[in-house]
Amino acid sequence: MYEISHSAPYKYFGAFRFSADDDSDLPLFDDWIDKEWDQNERNKVLDYLKKATCLVAASCMNDCPKCGESFGIATFSDGLWVWDSDFIHYIEVHSLKLPSELIERIQHREYLSPVLSELEQDKIMAAMSGITVEEYRNWRHSI
Ligand SMILES: [Zn+2]
Predict the structure, then answer these.
(1) Per-residue pLDDT tens for 22-68?
(2) In a domain? residue 133
(3) Which of 16, 34, 122, 141 has the most CB atoms around its CB within 10 Å?
(4) Alpha carbon of 41 to ligand 1 centroid (Å)
(5) Closest CA to 3 of 140, 105, 101, 93
(6) What order do you get walking across the sheet with 5-7 strand by strand?
(7) What's the domain count of the chain?
(8) How far is CA 125 from the centre of its chain?
């Protein structure tokens, strides 16, 4: 089983616990490793995830809890699903698999990420933050 966070109508996936001793509700990272996933298919999915609209990027780095590699922090979306840059690292380096629901969406879109308008991006960020679009825009313009 896996957990998908819903900030309706958007779906977030990519947060894990890295130790079985961690009693959070997050899915266990090691349960999501799939080294059998077809490499060609994996590369097409990675391309989709990397070329999706970047909603927000931070000027700091994050370290992978598995291998220690540093990577930039950013959040992406295809207009329905939302994921962070560490999710891309997990797939690329650690053979993480995706929920079948997300793979089916990517296949259905023929591996082409949609370009999101500013309004669509603001709607997603507002929903993920639990505030209205207007509140989100006011906050964004205040920083
Ligand atoms: Zn790593």
Answers:
(1) 888 889 999 999 999 999 999 999 999 999 999 999 888 989 999 99
(2) no
(3) 16
(4) 20
(5) 101
(6) 5-7, 10-12, 81-84, 70-77, 53-63
(7) 1
(8) 13
C-alpha of residue 33 to centroid of ligand 1, in Å? 12
- Encode pLDDT of 73-101 as tens digits: 999 999 999 999 999 999 999 999 999 99
C-alpha 91 – ligand 1 centre gap (Å): 9
Considering the domain boundaries, does residue 65 fall inside one? Answer: yes
Judge whether 122 lies within some domain. no
| Residue 26 domain boundaries | 5-116
Ligand 1 center to residue 128 CA distance, Å? 25
Q: Does residue 1 have a pLDDT over 70? A: no
Calpha distance 17→65 (Å, rounded): 10
pLDDT of residue 6: 63
- Ligand 1 centre distance from Cα of residue 136 (Å): 32
